[in-house]
## 1
Amino acid sequence: MPAEENKITPSFFAHAVLKTSRFEEMVTHWQTLLNADIAHQDPMFCFMTYDDEHHRLAIVGIPGLKDKDAQSSGLDHLAYTYGSIDDLMATYERLKAAGINPGWCVNHGPTLSLYYNDPDGNRAELQIDLFARAEEANAFIQSEAFAENPIGIKFDPDDFFSRYRAGESIEALSIRRRLKEGESFFDHLNA
């Protein structure tokens, strides 16, 4: 398909909406996860935000919905980028203290990511960028190292953040090792 001369694209991603039969539980989870403010809530709708947008996430309560099958197709996760390793670490610690733990932690290469499941099985990726510039991240995604392992390497967040707090640099901690002999990137997928 030839490139469009006057290609028009969206200005930004505005919001996502999740429907659920676990309304209160989902509102509590997402508000805690994102440290969000409630812009509006009634018995059926909750609109929340974490910045100057009127809402970034909405939860809609619909009684009697079927649970989704984990093996069905659909949206895998929503991703949220933090400004620094310190912000991501503080968020991890705040959530852990609230009893919310990540189900999968992975160094993708371009990002360091913590994945959290909500009560309905939807996932949120809380991440930081590991490259200072978009051009560097784009080059990495086009590299042989990324092609060899497009998933990344799992890591233990307690160990990672403990080492960071002890003085190891984010650059040293986030070097994404190559796969070992006989290891597959499938070994690093979330189970």
Note: The domain at 13-64 is CATH 3.10.180.10 (2,3-Dihydroxybiphenyl 1,2-Dioxygenase; domain 1).
## 2
Amino acid sequence: MIVTIQPSTVHGKIMAPASKSSMQRACAAALLKKGKSIIYNYGISNDDKAALSIIEYFGATIIKREDRIEIDSSNFNQLPLGIEGIHCGESGLSIRMFAPIVALNKNEITINGTGSLATRPMNFFDEIFPQLNIKIKSNNGKLPLIVKGPLQPKNIEIDGSLSSQFLTGLLMAYAASNANNVSIKVTNLKSKPYIDLTLKVMNDFGMNVPVNNNYQEFIFTKSETENKKSEVNYMVESDWSGGAFLLVAGAIAGNIIVKGLDTHSTQADKKIIEALKDCKANILINEKEIHISNSTLKAFEFDATDCPDLFPPLVALASYCNGTSLIKGVSRLAHKESNRGLTLQQEFAKFGVEIILENDVMKVNGGNGLKGTIVHSHHDHRIAMACAVAALKANKETIIEEADAVNKSYPNFYEHLQQLGVIVKKK
């Protein structure tokens, strides 16, 4: 799909989308709960659909209502009969979270994915799974994976520098396997707030939550409350990752109110508020409602090591800030849907914005105006959204190729821009 964005002023109110980080974790927890769960404000992104298809493969029944999804996972103990295995689409969280959960099963199951997920490194499983008595075959550290459990929890030590999502899967699988008096030690853990979200979801679904020893060790002991909840009602949080693009749109091109974002959330990407304040955006924060409008913006410094998904909206913001903004954490970008550091540098150069990559720091020279151009999403949802937001105050229209990449996380993104007054054309 090709989308054309005309320079526009944004105005009005909009609800931030559902968090796929929250939704996918809720799907996994609902499966492991072995009972009934009702999920409100459920997500509709491709990643969310992948998570739902995975738990359905393992026997969960899913009924979609207008305002909720009802999940019954009472049959999770039944071994899946299908031989095709599970498919994670392009969801990095699904592959990393569900692989250990799949390994609870004694059947040999294939795990696959598409697009950029097929090229992402999965060596972690080759190294860790044999320690847990799991047989694994990979394609030289890439997909597809063929795993055969059942997982047997043991004391292990893992490297958390690549992604916290590997740890999320292990924590859930250990809890589901009745782990007792065992621990997972972690070195170099990144994105700690996402682990906070995992532990919160586990607690909300009545799972056995390990003791968190300063993010360096997670200790499992027998819990009397494990899976005792007869029915779980869970509200999926609104998404700070998607909401960040709306907030940046307001900061550079208008006057809007973004609803639904919880400032007390454990989501890492709520740190976008810090960057907006630092660059002197006009922002007023109320309970689950944020009012933001355009102003003269100044360069800022920001550490995105624990929230690398903020790089794309931060680059769009920095492009309109007077001076050179510094964003730390570039090393976290290599294994996303695209190599986002290089992709942002390449695509924003088309707008006339200079981006310099120096070791772990990105320097964005902003405030010189943007020129409308033709850009490409690189099949990366966040690149497509960053380009669309950056286009709002360009000197002429911007054309985004492969713009439907937004379906991965925020299918309604262009419609939401239109609701805020942006002139959007699709073909």
Note: The two ends are 6 Å apart (CA to CA).
## 3
Amino acid sequence: MAQASPTQAVANIYRTPELWEKIVFTFICLAVYRVGSYVAVPGVNVQAMVNFFQSQQGGGLLGLYDLFVGGNLSRSTVFALGIMPYISASIFSQIAAAVIPQVEKMQKDEEGRKRIVQYTRYATVGLAVVQGWGYALFTESVQGAVTSPGFGFKTEMALFLTAGAVFVMWLGEQITERGLGNGASLMIFFSIVERFIPAIWSTVQLVSTGGVGILSVIALLAVMAGVIAGVVVITLAARRIAIQIPQRTMGRGRMREAAKNFIPLRINAAGVMPIIFAQSLIVVPGALATFSGNEKLRDFSDLFQPGTALYFILSAVLIIAFTYFYTAIVFNPVDLAENLKKQGGFIPGVKPGSKTAEYIDHVVSRITLPGAIFLTVIALLPVWIADFVNVTFRFGGTSLLIVVGVALDTMAQMNQHLLLRKYDTFMKKGRVRFRGRQQGGF
């Protein structure tokens, strides 16, 4: 079958009512999220906060957080915390399921999963309160940012930011349930993409004024294209393990030849989380030095500033370590082997049960190393190139992994809707002959 052109694909989306409604609903929710980016918390000098973040050049944990919330943190809006408290609470739930047997048992039934979702919401509120209070303390530490500091301001700030975080969490859940794609991921995707436009414009202005050479920009664009291609490859890459599942014949219950299939093991099962964990740990000394004012601690933190050799070395070690750690949390070879055994399936040449789990664990351990190394290169190379060519447009592997991953996932869901609609239309209108009779479908 010939592949549809982009124009035909858009027309097919418009002709699919349920998919079109999901897309429209998703854009409305994202527009509401964007409107909240212009509502500042009372009592804050927004320009002073913006100037402070610009003086820091977007570095550190606050710069990474500000990237994920679309600049709301630097502008001190009611959505300053964004979807991140909910993301953090969800990560805690995943870790708890991996280390606490009771939580793992709850995940295996419907009622237990609902309770975990409810607990995640409660944890989101708690994290938002703590982060809102901490952000209020940070805002008061910025000179000229707060007109009337004190307990009242901190309480007001924590209340506004908590309410904003809860509303954003609700908005993300609405997108997931009634829209297209994962709501939390799309909000982060939208926040990152909207930051690209002003960065690109500032780079264009530098080129026009002669601040940056055209060859440097071309080199940067070439690296960007290579990094994006690499991110797509690492996101879709998987190691296929062949399996066979015996099938019963109709009527007599006899077993026939096993159906051949495979288990796809993703090379980058941890996604972007290792980079986030690594960068969060690296900026801890700098954050402590900033808030404590200790000169010795500040001198020590300067050794790990972005762009130094120790920064790149420590980042690489932490990303590789956290890749193995998070892969062990999100992937359980024992459960996979047990589910395969219950279906009567097996890996050719491997005994079912514990031997299968050991084999799968061995394969995952081997494919995780190249995935971790590639993840490290994707995370650090763009930053090094941006510093080398001296441009303000700083793109990192963290943002690219999120953007590419969310885009691929959303496109896959759109394709599923289109295929389902196509099959449904064929079953209703098609007339297929089967055993001498006309059937309305398969």
Note: The radius of gyration is 25 Å.
